[in-house]
Predict the structure.
Amino acid sequence: MKLSYCSLLLLVIISSPGGLVSAQKDNVVETPVKVSIPSVSLVGFAGSNTHLTNIAGKGAEQIITPSIRDTTWLNYSSIVDEKSANVISVNINSGNLPAEVVVKLNVGEDVGAGAGTMGKSTGKITLSEYPQAIITDIGSCYTGQGTKKGHPLTYSWEWPSTYDVNHPSIDNIEVSVIYTLTAGK
Amino acid sequence: MNMPSAFLFFLLLSVMFSGEMIAQVSAYDQFTIVVNDKCMLSTNTSPSPVSMTLSTSVAGSAVSPVSNSNMYIKVTSIVPTGSTRKITAIISNGTVPAGTILNLISAPCTSINSQGALGSVVSTPITLLKTSDQTIVDGIGSCYTGLSTTDGYHLTFTWQPDQTNYYLINATPVATAVTVTFTIASNN
């Protein structure tokens, strides 16, 4: 009897440490949780025939040649604030494209593998050294990563009728195309 | 044994017996005074915040779920016979950013410095709400969890995008503050 009384008293003493008694309501505790969402603007490619590099501060670069026939897939991730939308633009960065040769780019709509507010394709453009918007009104979204995710890109090359498309120099044409994802106006 | 000595023996017995009775009653009285109904709760992190950032570094991928397991809840509980307590959680201030979900789960109480009826944890994560308290540990009897930093019910917060409402996510230049309140309360 005496022993069990002592051990019970001891249990109560042990289980009532001074540090816990100070709060006004002992049975409630509040914890602050801080959550942050930085903006995100990432663009990349997927496909079998992509010569790709990321250029810090500029975007993603693809080297295209007349032999590219396969579709390239443009993948992106975007987190915007409530007042903004992102835009993807494209321009020729460098290369040895003969002045008389035209490269057209067709941008398809997003195929729906991701979620969120996807951008809208502007359709077909002629590539130039000046940046042109190809996907606009991009909200907070992601396309998914890989082929058959995001927007399909297809290139078409147009030659003057007098042009000798069998000339060996055509194989040496390489054009660097840069895609950038930026905050829309 | 003659009559007077039998009477004396009986008297002696009854005096001894009643003496024992008094001692027991006295001990029982002290027991009820000392063992108060107790229930106390604290954390190792409060008031320093649990911080999480939702982001991705891969073009095409969704922002990744992020977890924080810095927090332990410590409890001291003495319950009346037959009753149990539970620990509940609710968002008492602030709002979880649109397009995201804040989940919480508790691991069973750490064993090194704990004793007693520590209850059982709810085995699937709860999605924290502003509107109702939700149980994360139930069936707590008389127990203590221990006091050191890593004693107690080990909590894991997981913050993730809500796929169907992904479009509602907004970049926030400043961190959003959300207050989670934990309560230990009787089940009865």
